[in-house]
Amino acid sequence: MTANFENSNKNATWWVVMGVSGCGKSSLGQALGQALGLPLIEGDDFHPAANIEKMHQGIPLTDADRAGWLVALGQALASHAGGAVLTCSALKQAYRDTLRAAVPGLRFVFMQISPQEALRRVEARKDTHFFSSSLVDSQFATLQDPSGEAGVIAVPATEPIAELVRLVRARAPVASA
Questions:
Q1: In this structure, are residues 23 and 157 in contact, taking their beta carbons and an 8 Å threshold?
Q2: CB 111 within 8 A of CB 161
Q3: Which of 3, 46, 120, 161 has the highest CB neighbour count under 10 A?
Q4: Predicted structure pTM score
Q5: Residues 16 and 108: beta-carbon distance below 8 Å
Protein backbone atom coordinates (compact mmCIF):
# COMPACT_ATOMS: atom_id res chain seq x y z
CA MET A 1 0.00 0.00 0.00
CA THR A 2 2.83 2.41 0.74
CA ALA A 3 3.89 2.40 -2.91
CA ASN A 4 0.64 4.15 -3.88
CA PHE A 5 0.94 6.83 -1.21
CA GLU A 6 2.64 10.04 -2.19
CA ASN A 7 2.78 12.97 0.19
CA SER A 8 3.21 15.94 -2.13
CA ASN A 9 1.91 18.30 0.56
CA LYS A 10 4.70 18.57 3.11
CA ASN A 11 2.42 20.46 5.53
CA ALA A 12 -0.21 17.71 5.53
CA THR A 13 -0.72 15.62 8.65
CA TRP A 14 -2.64 12.45 9.25
CA TRP A 15 -3.93 11.54 12.69
CA VAL A 16 -5.57 8.53 14.29
CA VAL A 17 -7.54 9.20 17.45
CA MET A 18 -7.40 5.82 19.18
CA GLY A 19 -8.38 3.93 22.30
CA VAL A 20 -10.96 1.58 23.71
CA SER A 21 -14.65 1.99 23.10
CA GLY A 22 -16.15 4.80 25.13
CA CYS A 23 -12.97 6.86 25.40
CA GLY A 24 -14.32 9.66 23.21
CA LYS A 25 -12.60 9.03 19.88
CA SER A 26 -15.43 10.45 17.79
CA SER A 27 -15.80 13.60 19.88
CA LEU A 28 -12.07 14.36 19.89
CA GLY A 29 -11.66 13.33 16.25
CA GLN A 30 -14.35 15.77 15.15
CA ALA A 31 -12.94 18.62 17.26
CA LEU A 32 -9.35 17.95 16.18
CA GLY A 33 -10.36 17.79 12.53
CA GLN A 34 -12.17 21.13 12.85
CA ALA A 35 -9.25 22.75 14.65
CA LEU A 36 -6.77 21.57 12.03
CA GLY A 37 -9.01 22.01 9.00
CA LEU A 38 -8.89 18.28 8.23
CA PRO A 39 -11.66 15.90 7.22
CA LEU A 40 -12.85 13.30 9.73
CA ILE A 41 -12.91 9.62 8.80
CA GLU A 42 -15.16 7.78 11.25
CA GLY A 43 -13.67 4.30 11.54
CA ASP A 44 -16.92 2.69 12.68
CA ASP A 45 -18.47 3.60 9.31
CA PHE A 46 -16.07 1.18 7.60
CA HIS A 47 -16.96 -1.93 9.62
CA PRO A 48 -18.65 -4.62 7.55
CA ALA A 49 -22.14 -5.60 8.69
CA ALA A 50 -20.83 -8.91 10.10
CA ASN A 51 -18.45 -7.05 12.45
CA ILE A 52 -21.19 -4.71 13.65
CA GLU A 53 -23.50 -7.65 14.33
CA LYS A 54 -20.79 -9.48 16.29
CA MET A 55 -20.11 -6.44 18.45
CA HIS A 56 -23.82 -5.82 18.97
CA GLN A 57 -24.14 -9.42 20.21
CA GLY A 58 -21.19 -8.96 22.58
CA ILE A 59 -18.77 -11.11 20.55
CA PRO A 60 -15.22 -9.69 20.43
CA LEU A 61 -13.71 -9.17 16.99
CA THR A 62 -10.72 -11.30 16.02
CA ASP A 63 -7.61 -10.17 14.18
CA ALA A 64 -9.12 -11.73 11.04
CA ASP A 65 -12.33 -9.72 11.54
CA ARG A 66 -10.32 -6.52 11.74
CA ALA A 67 -7.87 -7.19 8.87
CA GLY A 68 -9.95 -5.96 5.94
CA TRP A 69 -11.35 -3.10 8.01
CA LEU A 70 -7.84 -1.85 8.82
CA VAL A 71 -6.78 -2.04 5.17
CA ALA A 72 -9.87 -0.03 4.19
CA LEU A 73 -9.07 2.57 6.85
CA GLY A 74 -5.49 2.86 5.61
CA GLN A 75 -6.74 3.37 2.06
CA ALA A 76 -9.20 6.01 3.25
CA LEU A 77 -6.43 7.90 5.06
CA ALA A 78 -4.07 7.68 2.08
CA SER A 79 -6.80 9.00 -0.25
CA HIS A 80 -6.74 12.37 1.56
CA ALA A 81 -3.63 14.03 0.14
CA GLY A 82 -4.03 17.05 2.42
CA GLY A 83 -4.25 14.97 5.60
CA ALA A 84 -7.14 13.65 7.67
CA VAL A 85 -8.21 12.57 11.14
CA LEU A 86 -9.32 8.96 11.59
CA THR A 87 -11.11 7.47 14.59
CA CYS A 88 -10.09 3.86 15.15
CA SER A 89 -9.55 1.73 18.24
CA ALA A 90 -6.11 0.63 16.91
CA LEU A 91 -5.77 -1.56 19.99
CA LYS A 92 -2.73 -3.61 18.93
CA GLN A 93 0.62 -2.48 17.61
CA ALA A 94 0.07 -4.68 14.55
CA TYR A 95 -3.14 -2.75 13.78
CA ARG A 96 -1.30 0.55 14.14
CA ASP A 97 1.50 -0.75 11.93
CA THR A 98 -1.04 -1.63 9.22
CA LEU A 99 -2.22 1.99 9.27
CA ARG A 100 1.37 3.29 9.35
CA ALA A 101 2.18 1.22 6.25
CA ALA A 102 -0.61 3.04 4.40
CA VAL A 103 0.46 6.52 5.53
CA PRO A 104 4.11 6.93 6.57
CA GLY A 105 4.52 9.50 9.33
CA LEU A 106 1.03 8.82 10.70
CA ARG A 107 0.45 10.27 14.17
CA PHE A 108 -1.70 8.80 16.92
CA VAL A 109 -3.58 10.35 19.83
CA PHE A 110 -4.07 7.67 22.48
CA MET A 111 -7.03 8.45 24.71
CA GLN A 112 -6.26 6.97 28.10
CA ILE A 113 -9.27 5.99 30.22
CA SER A 114 -10.00 3.64 33.12
CA PRO A 115 -12.05 0.48 32.54
CA GLN A 116 -14.69 1.81 34.93
CA GLU A 117 -15.11 5.12 33.10
CA ALA A 118 -15.15 3.42 29.68
CA LEU A 119 -17.86 1.03 30.89
CA ARG A 120 -19.90 3.91 32.30
CA ARG A 121 -19.71 5.78 29.00
CA VAL A 122 -20.54 2.76 26.84
CA GLU A 123 -23.53 1.89 29.03
CA ALA A 124 -24.75 5.49 28.78
CA ARG A 125 -24.95 5.26 24.98
CA LYS A 126 -26.39 1.75 24.72
CA ASP A 127 -29.52 2.97 22.92
CA THR A 128 -27.60 4.90 20.26
CA HIS A 129 -24.51 2.77 19.50
CA PHE A 130 -24.05 -0.83 18.35
CA PHE A 131 -21.16 -1.63 20.71
CA SER A 132 -22.12 -3.88 23.61
CA SER A 133 -20.91 -2.85 27.08
CA SER A 134 -20.02 -6.51 27.67
CA LEU A 135 -17.04 -5.98 25.34
CA VAL A 136 -15.30 -3.26 27.33
CA ASP A 137 -13.23 -5.76 29.32
CA SER A 138 -12.12 -7.52 26.12
CA GLN A 139 -10.99 -4.17 24.67
CA PHE A 140 -8.72 -3.58 27.65
CA ALA A 141 -7.44 -7.17 27.42
CA THR A 142 -6.57 -6.61 23.75
CA LEU A 143 -5.08 -3.13 24.18
CA GLN A 144 -1.32 -2.92 23.73
CA ASP A 145 -0.40 0.45 25.22
CA PRO A 146 1.16 2.54 22.45
CA SER A 147 2.92 4.95 24.80
CA GLY A 148 6.53 5.13 23.69
CA GLU A 149 5.81 4.27 20.05
CA ALA A 150 6.91 6.84 17.49
CA GLY A 151 4.31 9.49 16.71
CA VAL A 152 2.04 8.72 19.69
CA ILE A 153 0.66 11.37 22.02
CA ALA A 154 -1.19 10.07 25.11
CA VAL A 155 -3.96 12.24 26.57
CA PRO A 156 -6.36 11.74 29.50
CA ALA A 157 -9.79 10.99 28.01
CA THR A 158 -11.61 12.54 30.96
CA GLU A 159 -10.40 16.07 30.17
CA PRO A 160 -12.72 18.43 28.26
CA ILE A 161 -12.47 18.07 24.48
CA ALA A 162 -11.17 21.63 24.01
CA GLU A 163 -8.35 20.89 26.46
CA LEU A 164 -7.48 17.67 24.60
CA VAL A 165 -7.26 19.56 21.30
CA ARG A 166 -5.00 22.11 23.00
CA LEU A 167 -2.80 19.32 24.40
CA VAL A 168 -2.45 17.64 21.01
CA ARG A 169 -1.60 20.90 19.26
CA ALA A 170 0.90 21.84 21.99
CA ARG A 171 2.66 18.46 21.88
CA ALA A 172 2.77 18.21 18.09
CA PRO A 173 2.42 21.67 16.54
CA VAL A 174 0.91 21.57 13.09
CA ALA A 175 -0.33 24.22 10.71
CA SER A 176 -3.99 25.03 11.18
CA ALA A 177 -6.53 26.03 8.59
A1: yes
A2: no
A3: 46
A4: 0.85
A5: yes
- Residues 165, 85: Cα–Cα separation, whole Å: 12
The whole-angstrom separation of Cα 26 and Cα 170 is 20
The full length of the chain comes to 177
- H or E segment to which residue 117 belongs: helix 115-124
78, 7 contact by CB (below 8 A) = no
**pLDDT tens by residue, 72-126:** 999 999 999 999 999 999 999 999 999 999 999 999 999 999 999 888 877 776 6
Q: Is 176 helix (H, G, I), strand (E, B) or coil?
A: coil
**Helix extents (H) in the chain:** 25-36, 49-56, 63-78, 93-102, 115-124, 136-142, 161-171
- Are residues 82 and 38 in contact, defined by beta-carbon separation less than 8 angstroms? yes
Give the Cα-Cα-Cα angle 154, 156, 14 (nearest 5 degrees): 40
DSSP codes of every residue in 22-51: TS-HHHHHHHHHHHHT--EEEGGGGS-HHH
In the structure, how many helices (H) and strands (E) does the chain have? 7, 5
